[in-house]
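I would like you to sit down with the pair of lines that follows and say whether tokens and residues agree.
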Amino acid sequence: QRVKWRIPKRNLQRNDLVILKEENTPPAKWVLGRVENLHFGQDGKCRVVTVKTQNGTYVRPISKLVLILEDE
């Protein structure tokens, strides 16, 4: 039996710097943002985050984000 996620990844954390991937724009135009709030699923994994950018605040799934810097 195979499971979908075999390699565990770390959860996003508050103040992590991320890039918001947009399907209709080229990668050079993707926006930087900082994670403000985490929304966890029933399994305790972070599935959705609230991201603050220069243009406003957005709620995005983690599959549409790229982690740039982790704040320690």
